[in-house]
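Protein: Lysine--tRNA ligase
Species: Candidatus Desulfacyla euxinica
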Amino acid sequence: MAEGKTSSIIEERKNKAGKLQEEGANLYPAGYQVDITSTEAIDRFDQMDEGTLEQETDSFAMAGRIIARRDFGKASFIHIKDRTGRIQAYIRKDRVPPENFSMFKLMDIGDFIGIMGRLFKTRTGELTLLAEDLSLLSKSMRSLPEKWHGLTDVETRYRQRYLDLIMNDPVREVFVLRSRIIQAIREFFVEKDFLEVETPMMQPIPGGATARPFKTYHNTLGMDLYLRVAPELYLKRLVVGGLERVFEINRNFRNEGISIKHNPEFTMLEFYMAYATYEDLMALTEELFNHLLHKMFDRNVIEYQGQTIDFSPPWAKISLFDALRDLGGVKDEIFQTKEKAGAFASECEIGLSTKESHGQILTKLFDHLVEPLLINPTFITGYPTEVSPLSRRNEQNPDIVDRFELFIGGREIANAFNELNDPADQRERFQNQVALRDAGDKEAQFMDKDYVTALEYGMPPTAGEGIGIDRVVMLLTDAPSIRDVILFPQMRAKV
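Structure follows.
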């Protein structure tokens, strides 16, 4: 809406607000006692015929935002919207106190209203609240987007999510479903005897993932702190302490790029299970997703961006090297030397730094050539040890680790592995990461001496997994971008 038109509307509404105050109306009263929501009313009374409904003598108080109105002089139909849906109300001059009707005439679309009255059906059969008394609950000084065009500008929708939620019911439904998905995940793990915990968001040493952290400073302690990139090292300290099954659903922060798959602040589920292996977690992950699908939709097949995804177990399992060969068309010589892998990556127009290891190049080739092809749930195993600094080495082949990543819909959804619990091996891996940082890799991990100390007290054989909640919600709501499932995604400052 043009700035001039917006200013004139605000001025007009301020004038109405002034008149309301002159008539004794409180523009922003405290509270209103609601008896019934719009959906409760529809569920309870909409199936009644007009004659039966007329026998109902109870009056109900409802409240919501006015989202539409049709005026006919001495009467008006309005639609109000509450947290559950919308319902029609009918305001007649001869059915409400005079001061009520005078106040109503000065109200606008966007205002919040409380209405007390009886329910009836119009000639068209629409359930309607006949007003006997009404109250202004909040005066809106700005007009909502035009009814027939709604709010369609993507950037405005993300920046002003409150407008998006008002105008676009499907958006509201996405975030309601997101909340229910997270609740179902909690229920699943609690039933499996996991303990939900909270670990530090601000950490003196960022660890648990290969990522660039955000840095801050604590004045009283006189020290640098980092927003966590992952809770992993703290959750595993808890396993050392005897909490054998723990999980956390919370925010991670990574100072990286923004895309349809990435937001600097995102939600992760991480869980750790003593005495389990990563193969056990494969079965548990299949069970978790099928639990979610049946609880949310009562089926295990979904459509995502025009592609059918079948979650029926068992899911496909393939090693990273075999996936590169069989799906990516990579020749065996690429696995032999870093130079050959680098040359092939250049042919594929994959950007590389001179400091990248052979394993890092192979995983970048996988990301470029194979990941987009993995539509149905697929476990990729056998990652190079050099790109897995916290994972336990495979006993038959120490060049790879006991790890899987889960891919669905052409993107990574989860990462899991047998946890490295050998303190000497962990110290050496950290030292290798420190060398990478010293060489300029800002995503390499720090040395965490206290974590090594914790391992020296003994950690039982353990497997752990991280699942990106935002990406799971994307899948289950058919959302093309991570911004569509985060209420307030990070945006560049508006110039």
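Remarks: Residues 169-191 form the longest helix (23 residues).
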